Each structure stands twice: as structure tokens, then as C-alpha cells.
Known about the structure:
The structure holds 2 protein chains of 2 kinds.
Chain A: E1 3-8, H1 9-19, E2 24-27, H2 34-44, E3 50-53, H3 57-69, E4 74-78, H4 80-85, H5 87-95, E5 100-106, H6 122-126, E6 137-139, H7 144-161, E7 164-170, H8 171-175, E8 177-182, H9 187-190, E9 209-210, H10 217-237, E10 241-244, E11 251-254, H11 257-272, E12 277-282, E13 284-286, H12 290-297, E14 302-307, H13 313-321, E15 327-331, H14 340-350
Helix pairs in contact in A: 1-2, 1-7, 3-5, 11-14, 12-13
Chain B: H1 4-11, H2 35-48, E1 55-59, H3 67-70, E2 74-77, H4 83-93, E3 98-104, H5 105-111, H6 113-122, E4 127-132, E5 135-136, E6 142-143, H7 162-165, H8 171-176, E7 181-188, H9 192-210, E8 215-221, H10 225-228, H11 232-246, E9 250-254, E10 257-258, H12 260-272
Helix pairs in contact in B: 2-9, 5-6
Amino acid sequence: MSEIRLMKGNEAAAEAAIRAGCDCYFGYPITPQSEIIEYLAEHGRKRNVVVMQVESEIAAINMIYGAAGAGARAMSSSSGPGISLMQEGLSYIAAAELPCLLINISRGGPGLGTIQPSQGDYFQAVKGGGHGDYHLIVLAPDCVQEMADFVYLGFDLAEKYRNPVLILSDGALGQMMEKVIFPDYDVNKHRSPKPWATTGKTPDRPPNVITSLHIQSEEMEKINLRLQAKYRTIEKNEVRYETINTDDADLLLVAFGLSSRICQKAMELARLEGIKVGFLRPITLYPFPYDALNKLADKLKGVLVVEMNAGQMLEDVRLGVCGKVPVEFYGRMGGIIPSPEEIVDILKKMI
Amino acid sequence: MTNREDVLLEDMEVVWEKPHTLTDVRMHYCPGCAHGVIHKVLMEVIQEMKIQDQIIGVAPVGCSVLAYHYMDIDMHEAAHGRATAVATGIKRYLPDKLVFTYQGDGDLAAIGTAETIHACNRGENFLIIFINNGIYGMTGGQMAPTSLIGMVTSTTPEGREVYTQGHPYKITESVAALPGTYYVTRQSVHTPTAVRHFKKSLEKSFKYQMEKKGTCLIEIVSNCPSGWKMTPLESNKWIEEYMFPFYPPGDLKVDGKLVEKKILKSAESRKEA
């Protein structure tokens, strides 16, 4: 039965993980995401989730590697510095084509940075992060409800494509409280069969080996081509985005996650002043909605990208718009959240 | 025409077969390297204990990175140093399966020290097989955390000295001191007697794992003829003359209790070195 609760984003994600049949959670405390491991420690263990606080994020991601290889629905969560430590393991998991779910409640960087919210981990999430040619499927929630919804979706996509999924959120979405509805979810209907898992070799099958080592160049290229073919399928099937007021729009605001909430308000304010502003929010950051942007650009006079970073998604928006109209950028960094009024001021200058 | 060898084979009585848990793939190990013997004994034990369908092995980065080509069991290839973390993930999800890691000195005692110590400290219920040959074999004979003082390697061309390279690390003694370990032993496979002792330690370790006793660690003081630039025979002699005084073979912890004599003896050898 579905249930309505008032929760922090971090708690909602943790509760959704339990309901989505997460078998194993391995993590390490870091602000502003520690409520996830705390909630799971309190509520997950008694609902059959293996919940472990371990010695480092490096150990945590490798425990996920092992558990996912053995067939578990495995997940972890962290924030920027911890996610950086996990990049080696993520590259291995992507290369070995194992499903798992990771949540980045990102904070301002670089370095130790600040614990305030930021979107500065876009490049790391979308363009790789670890070594080699691989992609994570990246989901960007904009509210507490999506913090929960994308956990179910994340596990399902991870198993469907045997690929790690990252939820790229931020400290504000993790800490703020909103209404959240937990839907009915029958784990058994969503769990994919895993005949490849390391469960002990039985006489009826060859040994299952989880590896990313392919010393012969020809073999390694073959694996890479297989991965790339999978990414093309993901790009074809899994692009998700939301648009508002694009029919009559002269200007288009493009933003993801928390900054998209602010852009919606900016759009309302601008429209009150007679500026025809539309809105596009990429929900999947990888795969990115290049085609949708490209089509919209035909009818627009300009695009404004708003991010809580120095302009990272901006590069993908420019690739999508492909020079058809000018693409401007407004960003705040260091944990500062832009105000709708600041954004309206820029929109006015663009007219 | 009948092949002469076939006729002869048919007439012969089979007195020994390699374990069927070992594949027919030709091993890539150098002549005289102990990995082949250790693989064989491990697979023999898995066959004799009839646990092939329960075993999950974790291979490391090092010379035995391709161990899963030779072992006919489910295996997971870990990143360098992360084998015990990967094993923790497997074992915590499948607590009734039997899990082992197979790691070299660089993997277990340098880059993976944190993972090793914490897995042992949690008392993860699996077996760690630790091959200590005092050198990085796969990457071309560089210094290992276990290289002896004075030992010439490609990164210590004038011999390991303490000021820049620190002391050889007896990680086996470190983990024996942790309450999470149940059985910690130092073995070798350089003589038939040593092989028999090693085999017994493997059997015990899997038995303890079935009884959920905690972490078992078997260190094998091993050789590296190529890295040490010796013949196989010379390298086996070198184990006895130089490795054993610093890494004395025998049990360090039995039934969860430290074997006091061994620790003392080991401390003395550290002083001498």
C-alpha cells in the first residue's frame, strides 16, 4: 500500500532503498548525506538490509562491487570528496557491467570545499570521473519525492542495463523536508534474473567470473565496442526531461536539480513582466536530452543555463543547441543558491 | 594405426589425477614459481571437501591476476588492494557460501593495508591466502612492503634501507593481534612436507569458515625465481636462509588464541634484522 510521509530528502532516499529491495548498503559518513546511512542503520537492518559503516569510501565501493557481483541490489551514498574516492571502483563496476546505485548529495568544492549545496560534480558524474571509456546513468532529482522515486528507478535501470546508476542530488535536496509518497512496489517483479552472478559454480554451468581485465588489445576493444553499443541503446531509450511553457517561449531556461526549482519561479516572475520564458529540466543528465534542445532551439531567441557551478551542463546545452541561438550562463558557486530575481535580471538583458 | 601413447595409457593404472577443479589452461607462471603449487593444493582441497559449488574466490592484481583462468570455480577479480573489501561484499550478501581471497604482498600489505586490517578486525568470516615473496613479481621485481632489509630489487638497486623505505612489514603478526582473526598461520610450499602442512591449514580454514569462526589468514612464504634472479632451487634455498629467519613458519594464532612463542620468536628476529 502506498504511504504519505513528511521527510528529509536523505531519509526519503533511504526509505525508498529499503522498499526497493536494497540488499546491501556500504557507506561512510560525510556531511550533508549522513542521514542516509543513519536512517538505514535504524530502519534497514530490521528489514533485512545489510547495512555497514566501513573504513572508507574506497572499501565501500569495492564491497558494492563484490555484493553486486554476487547478485545483490547494492548501493552506497556519499558527497563530493567521498564520491571522488569511489571513482576507481566505479570504473571497475562499469567495466564489469554490474548493476548498483550510488547517491551523491553533493557539496561545494573543489577540495574539502564546503558542506553547502552545489552542482559542481556534474562533470565528474556525467563525463566519467574514473578512468576509461564508460558512462554512469545519471538521474537528477529536483524534490524530495524524486529523491525517493529515483531510487526505485535507479535500481531498475541499473539491472536492466547492468550499469551503475548515480543519483546526482545536492545538500539542499538532501536536507530539506517535503511531502513524499511511497508507492506500491513489488520487489520480486522488478528484480532481474542474474545467471552471471558469483554464487558458487554448479555442475550445470561454466564458472562465473567477474572481471574487467582483458589483456589482449583485440579482446579489450571488443569489450569497449559492446559497452559503447549499450550506451547508444541507453541514449535512445532512457532520455528523460521536463518542459514547461515552451510553446510560445522566446527564451528558454535550462537547469537541473535544485537550480531548476529556482528557474521555475524565475520563469513565473519573468512572465508577469511579459517576457515569454520557457523551461527545460534534464532529468537524466546522462543520457542528455540533446535532441529535445536542438528542436526547441529552432523556435527560440536565446537560452539561459542556470547552475550552481561555473558552467558544466552548459557545455552539453551548447552541444544540443548547436549554435542555432545564443546560449548564456548564470551560475553561483561555493554553496550559494541563486535567487529568482538574479535570474530575471539576466533574462531582461537577453531580450 | 593406434597411437603408441594411447595403448600405454590404457594399460596403466591411474595413481594420481590433477583435481578436476583445476582447469586445463596452461599456467603463465615462471618456472619454479610457487603459485602453481599453491593453486593446485587449493583446488585439491576444494575438490576433496566437495565445496566447489559453495566457493567464491577473489583474485587480486599481481602475478595471480589471472587465477580465475586456472580455477574452475566462481571468481571475482578485485582492484589492486581491494580483495578483502570485495570479499566482504560477497560474504555479507551470501553468508552461507565459502569465500577466499588470494593476494600478494603488495596487494595485501601495501595498497590494501586498510582493507586487510579492517576486514580482519571485523572478523569477516572468510579465508585470506597471502603469498609473500618479498617482491612485486608482475610489474618487474620492484620492492614490496615485505622486502627484507638489504634486499636488491629494481627500485632498491643498492638494497632496501630503512631511512627511505621503512621496515619490512609483518602484517601477519599485525592481524594475528586483532580479535577478529581466528586462525593465523605462516606456511610455505618449498618442500613436500611444507606442502602437506599448507594443505592441512587450508582444510582447517575452510572448516572454521563453515563453523563461522571469523577471519582465517594463511601466509605462504614464497619465492620469485625471476624477480630474485635465481634458479628455482636457489630460490627455495634462499627462502630457508633469508626469509624464514625474519618470517618464521608456523601458527601465530590457533582457536582465536595467540601462540605466544611464535610472537616472541618473531620479535627477536625483527631485532636481529
